[in-house]
């Protein structure tokens, strides 16, 4: 049944549900979901939490990931994912949209929109994707102040502090920053763009007892590792931030090329989600059942053929 207006809407705050998953043991797997449909499909596949990537959000809007979107725009995406799937969401909070007061505003807005956790990073604006070159780092104590502000403002939201320092300050700098953010109140640490197994293992060894998040993005600095491999390296969470958007965008690109080439989409039908599959995913009949005035939809059995 749908989570929009039905009686199975989660009653436990998303932050508490996220914390329970984080502390359950094993590795918490969060695929990226860039819209409500992706969230529903991830839930159907068996995932219990989702990641909302700033890179995926901005790309889906036709924008680069340079910190140009607003808190309200991110909340629009959080509401989609949380309302459609009912799952706790880890939302990308970029650099916090400003200083301490802005971070506190973001935390409350994200909580109200349905997020279970937020990730804040220690870059300066304009920020860049963590796997790109020449990122500009914020002062570590300024970042720690943002973490403390987030901790003060949150009711249940989990605070994950990301450090991009490994590329420019080395492992010592990344670990020092992570410990400072932990002391400021971070619930977990996200060391971004580590590029060898030795680096992942060393960071985990030097942060004993801390919940750590790994990023398995494609076309970046990190080699491909599986969830179980990250767990063996000492990580309790892993995200695949932009994978869903990359696959969807590539499929759309191929569709438009086919329509332009063939004069129609007929050669792409085999690769499409059917009408029945779509309606099952979005629970059309469940919505119809909530309103007795709506006549239940009869799904066409097959596409008509030319005479």
- What is the terminal separation in angstroms? 40 Å
Tell me, rounded to a whole number, the average pLDDT: 92
Q: What is the third-level CATH name, the topology of the largest domain?
A: TIM Barrel
**Number of separate structural domains:** 2
The strand line-up of the biggest sheet is 1-8-7-6-5-4-3-2
| Beta strands, count | 8
Q: Based on CA inertia axes, which overall geometry fits?
A: globular
Radius of gyration: 21 Å
Strand fraction equals 5-15%
Describe the sheet with the most strands: 8 strands, parallel
What do these coordinates show?
By secondary structure, the protein is of the alpha/beta class. It folds into 2 domains: 14-242, Alpha-Beta Barrel (TIM Barrel); 249-290, no CATH class. The protein has helices at 14-22, 36-44, 54-60, 71-85, 100-113, 140-153, 166-184, 197-205, 227-233, 243-262, 275-282, 284-290; strands at residues 28-31, 50-52, 89-92, 115-121, 158-163, 188-191, 211-215, 237-240. The protein has an 8-stranded parallel sheet. Helix 7 links the parallel strand 5 and strand 6. Helix 2 packs parallel to helix 4 (71-85), helix 4 packs parallel to helix 5 and helix 5 packs across helix 6 (140-153). The longest helix has 20 residues, at 243-262. It is globular and about 70 Å long. The two termini are 40 Å apart.
Q: What would a concise description of this structure say?
A:
The protein is of the alpha/beta class and 307 residues long. It contains 12 helices and 8 strands. It has an 8-stranded parallel β-sheet.
């Amino acid at each position: 049944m749908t989570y929009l207006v039905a009686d199975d809407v989660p009653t436990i705050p998303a932050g508490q549900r996220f914390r329970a998953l984080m502390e359950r043991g094993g590795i918490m797997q969060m695929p990226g979901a860039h819209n409500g449909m992706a969230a529903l499909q991830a839930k159907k596949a068996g995932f219990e939490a989702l990641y909302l990537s700033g890179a995926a959000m901005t790309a889906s809007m036709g924008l680069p990931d340079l910190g140009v979107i607003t808190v309200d725009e991110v909340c629009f995406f959080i509401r989609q994912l949380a309302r459609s799937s009912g799952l706790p969401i880890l939302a990308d909070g970029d650099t916090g949209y400003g200083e301490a007061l802005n971070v506190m505003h973001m935390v409350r807005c994200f909580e109200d929109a349905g997020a279970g956790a937020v990730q804040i990073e220690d870059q300066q604006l304009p920020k860049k994707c963590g796997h790109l070159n020449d990122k500009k780092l914020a002062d570590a104590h300024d970042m720690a102040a943002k973490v403390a502000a987030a901790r003060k403002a949150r009711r249940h939201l989990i605070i994950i502090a990301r450090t991009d320092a490994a590329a420019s300050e080395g492992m010592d700098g990344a670990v020092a920053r992570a410990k400072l953010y932990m002391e400021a109140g971070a619930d977990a640490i996200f060391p971004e763009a580590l590029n060898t197994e030795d680096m992942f293992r060393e960071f985990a060894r030097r942060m004993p007892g801390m919940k750590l998040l790994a990023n398995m993005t494609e076309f970046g600095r990190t080699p491909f590792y599986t969830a179980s491999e990250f767990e063996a390296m000492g990580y309790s969470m892993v995200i695949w931030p932009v994978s869903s958007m990359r696959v969807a965008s590539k499929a759309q690109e191929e569709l438009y090329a086919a329509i332009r080439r063939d004069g129609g989409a007929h050669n792409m039908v085999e690769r499409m989600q059917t009408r029945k599959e779509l309606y099952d995913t979005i629970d059309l009949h469940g919505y119809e059942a909530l309103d007795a005035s709506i006549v239940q939809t009869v799904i066409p059995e097959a596409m008509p053929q030319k005479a």
